[in-house]
Each structure stands twice: as C-alpha cells, then as structure tokens.
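Data availability (excerpt). The following record was deposited with the supplementary files.
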Amino acid sequence: MYKKTTLPSGLRVLTEAMPGVRSATVGIWAEVGSAVEPHKRRGISHLVEHMLFKGTPRRSAREIAETMDGVGGNMNAFTDKETTCYYAKVIDRHVPLALDVLSDMFLRPLFDPQEFAKEQQVILEEIKMYEDSPDDLIHDLFLQTMWSGSSLGEPTIGFEETVLAVNPQDLRSHMRAHYAPNSVVVAAAGNVEHDRFVELVGERFAEFEGSCVLPVPESPATTPARHVRFKDSEQAHVVIGSRGLDVADERRYALSVLDTVVGGGMSSRLFQEIREKRGLVYTVYSFQAAYRRAGLFGVYAGTSPKNVQSCIDLIVEQLAAARSMPIGNDEFRLAQEHIKGNLTLSLESTSSRMIRLGRNEFALGRHVDSEEVDRRIDAVTPDEVQELARELLIEENLGLTIIGPVDESAIDWSRTAA
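Predicted structure:
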C-alpha cells in the first residue's frame, strides 16, 4: 500500500493507502528544525511554522481556519529538532482542498509585520505556559544537561530574547536556506490514490524549484551531570537517564524491548515497583529521545518532594537490575507483544501513518512497514537486551535532572555519580 514518486524538481511524494477508512491525512515536511539554528536564532524554525498560518495573498489567517473548519477538517503543525511538518486531516473527498490550503501556506506566506509582532507575543505566552508545565519542561532540561552546549540539546521553542530578536526578513532567509524541493516531502495516508495525489502535488508545487544545502545531523557528546532547578510546586519532577541510540541504529528494536520492560506500561518494572508496591508516584515511565545521529534513554517520575530520594534510589536499582539479571521468558514475551500491539493500534490512525511516512523517509530513506517491525521485534533475544543494558545503563553514564521544591544539598548523588 506504500508508494513513492520523486518529481523532476526533486520533491518526494509518499502515500500509504488505507482503503477501509473515509479520511486522509496530508502532510508537508521540511528537513529543518531547531538543531540547525545558531543560538541567537533559537526558535526561528518554530516561529516560521506559526507564521505560515497567518495568511497568504489568497487567504487571510481567518480564511485559512474557516476553510478547514468548513469541511470538518483539522489542521496543525509541529516543529521538532530535525524536521517541521504542516498537516491536515480531512474526509477523503476534501484531500485536494487540504493540499491546496497547505501548499498555499507553505509556498506563499505573507509574513505581515503586524501579524508577526502578534505571533511573537503568542510564542512568548507559549514559553510561559511551558515554564508552568514542569512535567514537560523537565524533558528539555534533561536534554540540555545531557547534551550541554549543543544545538540538539536546546529547546525547540526558543527563549524570550531570541524570539524577540528576529524579524520577518530573518524568517524569509531561513526558509530560502532550508525549504527547497530536495529537502521537502509531501506525504498522505488514508483513502488516497497515489497517481492522482502525485498529479495534485505536481500542480500545486509547479513553482517550487531550486535546491538547498541539507543539514548535517548533529552528534553531540553525552555529558552526564546533575541539575536541580528549584520551583515552588506541589510535586517534584525527576528524570534519570543515559546515552541511547540514534533512530537508524539496528539495535533500536532491542532498546524498544528494554524500554518496555523497564518502564513501558502498567506491567513494567518501574510502574509495579514504584507505584503499585510503594505508592510513591502517580506517573512513572521510561522513554527514548532518538535523532539521526544521537539518542538518549531516560526515566521520568513525578513525586512528592519528600519522596525524591526514594524514587532516585529505586530507579537506579531497576536500571542496575536490567544490567545484571536476564529477563525472564514470560516478561520478555509480554514486552514483545506489547510493542507489536501498540504499533498495530497506532496504525489505525491516518495521522500516525502519515507521520511515520515522513519520519522514516528522513531518518532511513525508506518505508518501514508494520510487518518488518514485527519481524525485527520477534528476532530480538533476551541476551541482546541485557547486553544493551550493560552498555548504556552503567552508573557513570547516568545524568539526573530535577524540577521542584527540592534542596539540592539534601540529594545523595552517590548512586548517580559520574
């Protein structure tokens, strides 16, 4: 059901047909994110994303919104560290309209100075909202701590001073440098017919020409350290983690099994030990932050300030257990089936499939279907998982970040000492 066509301009068009649904999600991807930004321009990719919704010569910002609302569609965008995506989910018969609106925004943004000034203030409010969400902020702090001094480690949203320092001409320059046919993918998943979609893309992007220098993925050194940010809140938020794997590493399937065993669900070791047995947290989980040339593996827990040390000790104990003790057969098979089941459920969504199309194209240069993932997960062995744990989760590799009403001097760092 997957097809790919490269237009003469170099623009790639990807589709994955899902004939059993009545919807489709269309996305325009650009191979640019915050990792390419100099520090003084931190947040410019995200600001470009916002401004593309603020009007074109054909449509005002209100008309863009009303066009999608008028057909019951949803339109949004996201900027991450290595890509930016603009997408719309609509009933299948409205795919031409969705593509027309998205391409109009993408190719002909006005960057009106008055709208730009307002959107700068909107992003400053977004930064403030983010600062008031420590369970989200802790993950950025973890990346900044573990990849100190790198662009990949700094927040995608930017900082107040860097957002205010740019102007509309900077945004145009940024787009000229990074938005070109060789850096862009148009993807669609759902009830779409490939050849017809390629025809539509060719028409809408007929004026899109040229090329740009593609970004070189950053590979920052891992700098495990400890960082506490005091914040007057009811809970303390903790992340402990280490170096992980990049998105193309062939051992990523073994890491997915390790991730699931350690903290990937209600039956995981961390959930059972810290929440179910001891009642110290409401939320605890492990996660991966994987990019093209770098990755991190971490564990998050939100707990009362008085329980921070207990949570740290228990997390470190579980990471040590993953290194030292083989995974039992039942636990191992449970993790494998959990991964495959979650993937299958996610692929019932046209949006999830469209996002997989774009990310796989940029990260791997090819499509990875669910059958391949199932085969690779089934091929993982307990020994491979334990070997990976021994490599990644050694105590000298562990970094620790905390946000909350915590006295740094009261934390015993010995269990995570580098």
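Summary of structural features: The mean pLDDT is 96.
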